Amino acid sequence: MRVSLKDVAEHAGVSVKTVSNVVNKYPHVTPAMREKVQRAIDDLGYRPNLTARHLRKGRTGIIALAVPELGNPYFAELAGDVIDAAAAHDYTVLLDHTQGRRERELLVTQGFQARVIDGLILNPLELEAEDLAAGTGSGPLVLIGERSYDLPYDHIAIDNIAAARTAVRHLLELGRRRIAFLGARGDRPSQPSHLRLLGWQAELAARGVTADEALVAPVEGWDRADGAAAMAALLDAGQRPDAVFAYNDLIAIGAMRVMSERGLRVPEDVAVVGFDDLTEGRYGAVTLTTVAPDKKAIARLAVESIVGRLAGKNDEASRGGDGSGDGDGIGRREGGHSRELRPGFALMERESTLGRAARG
Amino acid sequence: MRVSLKDVAEHAGVSVKTVSNVVNKYPHVTPAMREKVQRAIDDLGYRPNLTARHLRKGRTGIIALAVPELGNPYFAELAGDVIDAAAAHDYTVLLDHTQGRRERELLVTQGFQARVIDGLILNPLELEAEDLAAGTGSGPLVLIGERSYDLPYDHIAIDNIAAARTAVRHLLELGRRRIAFLGARGDRPSQPSHLRLLGWQAELAARGVTADEALVAPVEGWDRADGAAAMAALLDAGQRPDAVFAYNDLIAIGAMRVMSERGLRVPEDVAVVGFDDLTEGRYGAVTLTTVAPDKKAIARLAVESIVGRLAGKNDEASRGGDGSGDGDGIGRREGGHSRELRPGFALMERESTLGRAARG
DNA sequence: ATGAAAGCGCTAACAC
DNA sequence: GTGTTAGCGCTTTCAT
Question: Positions of the region Disordered (chains A, B) (predicted)?
């Protein structure tokens, strides 16, 4: 059934080495020989067994990507970008989702050392620094998303404080003063939304506007329903913000839905800025202004980090000496020091008030 | 630095077989021995090399899923469900997207025979029957999505004609008579939207309503922008439908946006039904009525199809003739005949007119 | 330029 | 119950 290198070699009357040479495009093969072997390959319909190749080379060509939730379009779009970026380096992507649960995140970081993968790109939500400090196995690990851990792994995230400040500045320039922040999580300061909340505070302070903590609305999760609940809670508490900066677009969308239900107009009564630049945000009754992280850059940098460290490991191994004297050098810094990489972002300002003009 | 079975065996002073027995939870091991080996495993931090195991067993525990586009929330959500369904069978998922391009779809079906995967779940958009007829390699292939090919592969899709008829019937019962269909593709009748268009025609005919072909709007793609363009074209052509049945929710959302821009009210002026049950559809200014395919069932059936055929192949091929002699041709059917599986669907009727009540 | 042979790390006969 | 050993299919020195 399954035809192997040896079968091809026998069929062509040559050694396996020669067939291997042809398959791997080794340059020093005579054209005649190459053709003969190629014919045998075609005759038998030979396909190399990648698993065997991987075992031999110690590489699989697969990198894993673990995001919280594919149902969140941000992560879905990011996953698509990672797949494309990986393909550019001849890598395929094993996808997993953690549902933002710490145990699942932990499982991913620990389990992947035994997996058939060369490296892992992880977007943690709940994971703590100490979970990672224990070490994560043999392959390179790169963290994406806004949390910052002081750990020896590459970390890729936009400057969330600056991005949040940009969003809040935009609302201030619109003349708004009671700017709510939707998407705080009370339990731990290291939560994902913390940096954006910090940005909100910093920008208000810089402009001399009082940061009213009553306008900070906590959320249970990061989806539309959570945004709706947060906005409803805010309004039920008697707050009347004139602007909303939401942790992400989904929360903003949920909040806008509630405002619509309660007869508040966006942006006249309440201006809204989200985060993530979901396509979805462009097609509501009101086009959502949003902070747009450069997803493609994030994806590309993450993949390049993995690929680079893999290559670095190779160089180091083949050269023997040199290296920065990192004894066991497994898992951590195996191709240079860890880096903080900062892709760009942009404020997509497009809070158009559709429908009104057309209606006259 | 990688510690292997042999290292553990030496460290524990036993044979590799014994270590392997412990690792694989082989029952007939004395507790004392088991503990001794386990300690050696812990001491050395041994992790089994899955690649080697895979090579040996001929299985990788990985199935591939290829969808058109992760940016489409329907496919993103489906991918999440497939990952969960696969995890229930101890499989992981390699994800790819074809961008709905025939060459990419073809590449996936052909390339996967050489991949490190046990099977493939493919949602084709452009692929033709003859592309698949050529054969696809060694592992099981299962097709999902509405296209029907008369080919020996399992195929999983809801009854699209019945689902479309349900949607149109709903609009007819609302008293609408000029029901547009958004999402036709003129080029080939085997295109994805064909069955839904058929359902539209069939239901109108059954109710004695003239199917006005001028109300059938073609699209370039399946995204929001395509729905917006199609709706705009329809209106620009002077058509005034009182209802819209869209091929999917994204097209419906794009169309609603255009209606909003032109002062048409949903659902008063134009009632809308979409398809896919995206969460997004529940959070617009108007909650979108939609046909909801049972995504989890689709995912589960697809995974079970692969897993089942893999198991079947095992039973059949347990006589692995090696060495001398003529290899008796191992047949094509590897686990039973191909099946058509039909998960359910439901009409999610929730075209509420929010905002008015609250405002009134 | 091509061939012979030694494993990569693991599992599963088959012995003891 | 535990040890020995032969490969899974491939790449890769080391010869020739």
Answer: 313-360
Residue A258 is predicted with a pLDDT of: 96
Contacts of B330 in chain A (CB under 8 A): 1
Spatial neighbors of B244 by CB under 8 A, at least 6 apart, are B179, B180, B181, B182, B231, B252, B255, B270, B271, B272, B273
pLDDT at B126: 85
**C-alpha–C-alpha distance, residues B109 and B141, integer Å:** 8
pLDDT of residue A68: 95
| CATH number, span B160-293+347-359 | 3.40.50.2300
The domain limits of chain A are 5-48, 62-158+295-315, 160-293+347-359
> Max alpha carbon distance in chain B (Å)?
86
CB contact under 8 A, A51 and B48: no
Confidence (pLDDT) at B312: 75
H or E element at residue B289: strand B289-293
Give residue B353's pLDDT: 47
pLDDT at A322: 34
Contact state of A94 with B96 under an 8 Å Cβ cutoff? no
Summarised one tens digit per residue, pLDDT across range B134-189 is 666 668 999 999 877 788 899 999 999 999 999 999 999 999 999 999 999 866 66
pLDDT for res A229 = 97
Question: Is the domain defined by A5-48 classed in CATH 1.10.260.40?
Answer: yes
**Fold identical between A5-48 and A160-293+347-359?**
no
The shortest C-alpha distance from A260 to chain B (Å) reads: 5
CA distances from B37 to A114, A115, B3, B9 (A): 19, 22, 14, 8
Ranges of chain B whose pLDDT falls below 50:
316-335, 353-360
Provide the CA B350 distance to its chain's centre, in angstroms: 25
A97 touches B: beta carbon within 8 Å: yes
- What is the rounded distance in angstroms from the CA atom of residue A64 to the CA atom of residue B85? 18
* Spatial separation of the C-alpha atoms in residues B272 and B264, rounded to whole Å: 12
The spacing between the Cα labelled CA in B56 and the C1' in D7, in angstroms, equals 9
Please name the member of B2, B70, B262 whose beta carbon is closest to the beta carbon of A358: B262
pLDDT one-digit tens code per residue, A170-189: 999 999 999 999 999 866 66
Contact (CB, 8 A) for A277 and A348: yes
Q: Which residues of B touch A253 (CB under 8 A)?
A: 283
Q: Is there a contact between B355 and A260 if contact means CB atoms under 8 Å apart?
A: yes
Per-residue pLDDT tens digits for A22-70:
999 998 889 999 999 999 999 998 888 889 998 998 889 899 999 999 9
Residue A248's CB: how many other CB atoms inside 10 A? 28
- Chain B residues touching residue A46 (CB < 8 angstroms): none
Query: What are the beta bridge partners of residue A292?
Result: A346
A62-158+295-315: what CATH class? alpha beta
Q: Are B246 and B275 in contact (CB under 8 A)?
A: yes
Residue lying closest to nucleotide C12, CA to C1': B17
Q: Is A30 exposed, middle or buried (0-12, 13-18, 19+ CB in 10 A)?
A: exposed
Amino acid type, A215: L
Residues 120-179 of B with CB under 8 A from A: 137-138
CA distance A161 to A197: 8
- Torsion-angle region of residue B99: left (phi > 0), alpha (psi -120 to 50) or beta? left
pTM of the model: 0.89
DSSP B284: S
pLDDT confidence of residue A190: 62
pLDDT given for residue A281 in this prediction = 95
Tell me which residues of chain B, numbers 182 to 241, contact chain A at a CB-CB cutoff of 8 Å.
223-224, 228
Residue numbers in B near A94 (CB within 8 A): 62, 92-95
